[in-house]
UniProtKB/TrEMBL annotation, chain A:
A Pfam family reported for this protein in Swiss-Prot or TrEMBL: Amidohydro_1
Signal peptide coordinates: 1-24
Record-annotated Amidohydrolase-related domain positions: 378-460
Keyword set includes Membrane: no
InterPro entries for this protein: Amidohydro-rel (IPR006680), Metal-dep_hydrolase_composite (IPR011059), Metal_Hydrolase (IPR032466), Metallo-dep_Hydrolase (IPR051781)
Protein source organism: Brevundimonas subvibrioides
Gene Ontology MF term list: hydrolase activity, acting on carbon-nitrogen (but not peptide) bonds
Alphabetically ordered keywords of this record: Hydrolase, Signal
UniProt superkingdom: Bacteria
Protein name, entry field: Amidohydrolase
UniProt cross-references to CDD domains, sorted A to Z: Met_dep_hydrolase_C (cd01309)
TrEMBL record, chain B:
InterPro entries in alphabetical order: Amidohydro-rel, Metal-dep_hydrolase_composite, Metal_Hydrolase, Metallo-dep_Hydrolase
Keywords on record: Signal
Domain of life per record: Bacteria
Family annotation (SUPFAM superfamilies): Composite domain of metallo-dependent hydrolases, Metallo-dependent hydrolases
Entry-linked PANTHER family: ALPHA-D-RIBOSE 1-METHYLPHOSPHONATE 5-TRIPHOSPHATE DIPHOSPHATASE (PTHR43135:SF3)
Amidohydrolase-related domain location: 327-412
Protein name from the UniProt record: Imidazolonepropionase
Leader sequence residues: 1-21
């Protein structure tokens, strides 16, 4: 009952974010009650000072994202890969009011007044989703003063939020968009057992982080297995110094979080005694326990992933995705059975011991398991620009291994599966009527190294056009820098 | 008749005795020689070398490899690579690319650390790479960048400068054929960082490094003229070790090229000036801002090793980085070679994708192929010896299922020095062990499945 009340509160975060304009303009002097069940308790009778009761302001850094100006658009004549295993030759994609309205064959009628984009000879896919990005928190330039991705001061920093480190002027957002990336999950780094909260953003130029925040997207918590936490803290002669120290650290944190949650529940229920002191670290982990915050777990090795699944079972939460899941192929059936996505590279390996057993077929083998959720991610400002090529390499490897994988299926590894992996599958990731109008028009088959993203739409708005300098945004940082505005052989001002 | 029988016998014994007098003809493919394209071409190899490249029929009795519908190229040459020198990047002791001792800097010769049994080599081969220019990394951080999860999370700023040495050491040429000896030629070039990494060596400022460099070469020349006096301890004190002095003589006299890792356009200009003033033969490495001074680089006839996908300002030295850098330099007449990723060890195989991305950003396809094959050989003074499908060159030949720059294409056959290479790797063994869901028939663990 009490857990249900908490879950209700978490759902209210989503509701608030979805009804964005209303929440953003709410008078914060009179915060809305979270929902019936929690406001029925003692908390409303015993007002606490602002900011001390999380339930009174569930979205303290609300999204101010507004889609860019847009028309209703009809993309006609292209080869459409829907992200849901469908391939439509000479297809029609309609977007109205920023949403996908219809997807169909050439006979699909185009309503009057729609701006028609001729995609003959080109390919149309959902916008690319990079589920593992450090853009903004490890921005370019990565110089002293700009390295904000790891709060490597304690093994548990679940209290920090990646969004508070994001520098929106990172030029990497623009280059990612030129590679078709429309949505990114920005994560803290992996120095800690709990690195902090992730945030999902729309990839549009913005002065503020809030202007990019994906309305309604759930938070994640970055957890890290393996070598990184034990090396960082073991190197300081503190725990964790070993894999077993890592596991003790996760367990201790969830024990503390359960205790914290129970204290709040009791206080809300009875109103007796003093209210617990708000603790941001435990608040994040309590969100994991109630299912409102998704576990995004950096974990390379198969044996460690299976231990992490047992820990989740021990404390009653779910793991949503394993990131950098180098050895996912060794436990593909188990991951599929647990409903956990494996977020992977194709070509990265050998940079440390836990990356030794990488195979290019990882995604294909994870995908081949019944119910498997394979995702290709970047973790890198360069690779995020070419996730389509990373999928192509994975697809080719899978075919060499004898697996029959179609292009219209493989595109899901950076679209619909990626959306599922960060909890926004009902918002984007596929060309399905009603979902957000996040669309890429590629110059050629996106599994070709020569394909370029020609146009990129986010919520139905044109945000990048390879042929139109008016749609090639330049960050503040880039203005007036060396090379800025200079044309040379093959080089045009503005684009990187 | 008798000769035919003999050749057949040799063909049967191929696996046991590769590349004896065996003649192999690769026929019917689209042949990219490195400098030209031959449709429906025939490449004949024998005795470890290429015998002919043309459109004729296969010689009688030759083992014929049908490459119809396929593409035939020279094996690709990884440049700025750590193949055979680095096994697991983060495992100290398995990394023989950088040396921190200040008495062994220019004289550090990576060839003694080569491991022909490295598990990274077969993986690179599956990416079509058959040779590599392997280089020392400067301990000050000039080498391939580290994945940030590998750092101690200080961010991607400038590294520590543990050594006062200006030089990282000398590079070697290796081939990637399976076997016990991969060294082709040691000491083909000297390596030194300039820009931020080099400035750190001299005390922190760029200008100081140039002064130190000139002073060092002056000492080398003094030493070279007065070795006998040096040995009698009758020469003034010199600031570097005898081994380093000796190693730098060919740099000072212009016979050994100096690979200069440099990024910023301004630094490139100063390095070109230094080359002129000191008579040093230069190869630029990195050169992300090279396009801004492409005409200067071309006029100096200095080649460039570059990664065409470096388009972000990782630091303040690369603010003008652009995807079109390769195309612009090539258009200006600069000879370029295209690198793989992260120091071209584990991700050396991605060089072909990097080349493809250069093509999609304006580099002509033929120039991209040349940048993976014939240009590296030219840059390191070994034109005609490898990196090209022409008579007399080493028989490093790769057959591809399609366009070699495409991720959807793969290697279907590879020859190095005329020896056909196995198309497997530790990764392929792992894949095959787990391709059936990690279980094998009979309920036994996969570990029993070899």
């Amino acid at each position: 009952m009490i857990r249900h009340a908490l879950r209700g509160s978490s759902l209210a975060v989503v509701a608030c974010a979805l009804a964005l304009s209303a929440c953003a303009t709410t008078d914060t002097d009179a915060p809305p009650a979270a929902d019936g069940s929690s406001s029925g308790g003692a908390s409303t009778d015993r007002a606490m000072a602002r900011g001390l009761d999380a339930s009174t302001n569930l979205d303290p850094y609300p999204s101010t994202y507004q889609p860019l100006p847009r028309d209703n658009v009809a993309i006609v004549g292209g080869t459409v890969l829907t992200g849901t295993d469908q391939r439509i030759e000479n297809g029609v994609v309609l977007m109205s009011d920023g949403k996908v309205e219809a997807v169909g064959p050439a006979s699909t009628p185009v309503p009057a007044g729609y701006r028609v984009v001729d995609a003959r000879g080109r390919f149309v896919t959902p916008g690319v989703i990079d589920v593992h990005s450090h853009l903004g928190v490890y921005p370019s330039p990565g110089v002293s003063g700009m390295s904000d991705g790891n709060e490597a001061t304690s093994p548990n920093t679940a209290q920090v939020w990646a969004e508070h480190s994001i520098w929106p002027q990172d030029p990497g957002f623009n280059t990612a968009r030129a590679g078709g990336v429309t949505t990114l999950q920005i994560l803290p780094g992996s120095a800690n057992l709990f690195g902090g909260r992730s945030v999902t953003v729309r990839n549009i130029p913005s002065i503020t982080m809030q202007g990019m925040k994906f309305p309604g997207a759930p938070y994640g918590v970055k957890m890290a297995c393996g070598e990184n936490p034990s090396r960082v803290y073991g190197g300081r002669n503190q725990s964790p110094a070993t894999g077993m120290g890592n596991v003790a650290g996760y367990r201790a944190a969830f024990i503390a979080a359960q205790d914290y949650r129970d204290k709040w529940d009791k206080w809300r229920e009875t109103g007796e005694g003093s209210p617990p002191t708000r603790n941001l670290q435990n608040e994040t982990l309590a969100g994991v326990l109630d299912g409102s915050i998704l576990v995004q777990n950096h974990c390379y090795r198969a044996d460690e992933m299976m231990v992490m699944l047992d820990i989740a079972n021990e404390f009653g939460y779910r793991v949503t995705a394993f990131h950098h899941a180098i050895e996912a192929y060794k436990i593909a059936p188990q991951l599929a059975a647990a409903g956990v996505c494996a977020d992977m590279w194709t070509g990265w390996w050998g940079f440390k011991m836990e990356a030794l057993d990488a195979v290019e077929e990882n995604a294909a083998l994870v995908d081949a398991a019944e119910g498997g959720c394979a995702v290709i991610h970047s973790d890198d400002a360069q690779l995020t620009q070419r996730l389509n090529q990373e999928v192509a390499a994975a697809l080719a490897a899978g075919r060499r291994a004898g697996l029959n994988i179609s292009e219209e299926h493989a595109i899901s590894w950076i679209t619909s599966n990626a959306a599922r992996s960060i909890g926004i599958g009902d918002e984007t990731g596929a060309l399905t009527p009603g979902l957000r109008g996040d669309v890429v028009i590629w110059s050629a088959n996106p599994f070709s190294v020569y394909a370029r993203a020609d146009q990129v739409f986010i919520d139905g708005a044109l945000t990048f056009d390879r042929f139109d300098p008016r749609y090639q945004p330049v960050s503040d940082f880039e203005l007036g820098q060396p090379g800025f505005g200079i044309a040379a052989a093959n080089i045009v001002p503005g684009a990187r | 008749m008798r000769r035919f029988a003999l050749i057949s016998l040799t063909a049967l014994a191929l696996s046991a005795m590769p590349a004896l007098a065996q003649v192999t003809a690769i026929t019917g493919g689209r042949v990219l020689t490195g400098t030209s394209v031959i449709e429906n071409g025939t490449v004949v190899i024998s005795g470890g070398r290429i015998v002919s490249v043309g459109t004729g029929a296969a010689p009688a009795g030759a083992r014929v490899i049908d490459a119809r519908g396929k593409v035939v190229t020279p094996g690709f040459v990884a440049v700025d690579s750590g193949l055979g020198l680095t096994e697991i990047s983060s495992v100290e002791g398995s990394e023989d690319q950088s040396n921190g001792a200040n008495t062994i800097s220019a004289s550090f010769d990576v060839s003694y650390g080569l491991d022909p049994w490295s598990i990274a080599i077969p993986v690179a081969r599956l990416g079509g790479i058959t040779r590599a220019i392997v280089v020392p990394n400067h301990p000050g951080g000039s080498g391939g960048h580290q994945h940030q999860d590998d750092s101690d999370f200080a961010g991607a700023g400038s590294g520590g400068f543990q050594t006062p040495g200006l030089f990282a050491g000398t590079a070697s040429v290796i081939h990637l054929a399976a076997g016990t000896d991969i060294l082709v030629q040691p000491r083909v070039a000297m390596v030194a960082p300039f820009g931020e990494a080099g400035a750190g060596v001299a005390g922190g400022a760029r200008g100081a490094e140039f002064t130190l460099f000139k002073e060092t070469l002056a000492e080398v020349r003094l030493y070279a003229r007065n070795k006998a006096a040096y040995d009698r301890a009758a020469l003034r004190d010199l600031s570097i070790s005898r081994a380093d002095l000796e190693a730098l003589i060919p740099v000072a006299d212009g016979s050994m090229p100096l690979i200069v890792t440099v990024h910023r356009a301004a630094d490139i200009q100063q390095v070109l000036r230094l080359g002129r003033e000191e008579g040093v033969k230069l190869i630029l490495d990195g050169a992300e801002e090279g396009w801004l001074v492409a005409a200067d680089i071309a006029a100096a006839d200095v080649p460039v090793l570059l990664n065409p996908i470096s388009n972000l300002p990782g630091d303040l030295e690369t603010r003008a980085a652009r995807m079109e850098n390769a195309a612009a330099l090539n258009a200006a007449g600069v000879v370029i070679a295209i690198k793989g990723n992260e120091g071209s060890v584990h991700r050396a195989r991605e060089a072909r994708y990097n080349a493809g991305n250069a093509v999609s950003h304006g580099l002509p396809f033929e120039a991209a192929i040349a940048a993976l094959t014939v240009n590296p050989a030219r840059i390191f003074g070994m034109a005609g010896q490898f990196g090209e499908l022409r008579a007399g060159a080493a028989a490093d030949v790769v057959v591809w299922s399609g366009d070699p720059l495409e991720p959807l294409s793969s290697v279907t056959a590879a020859f190095i020095n005329g020896q056909e290479q196995s198309l497997t790797s530790r990764q392929i063994l792992l894949r095959d062990r787990y391709r059936n869901g990690g279980r094998q028939a009979g309920g036994m663990p996969v570990a029993y499945g070899n």
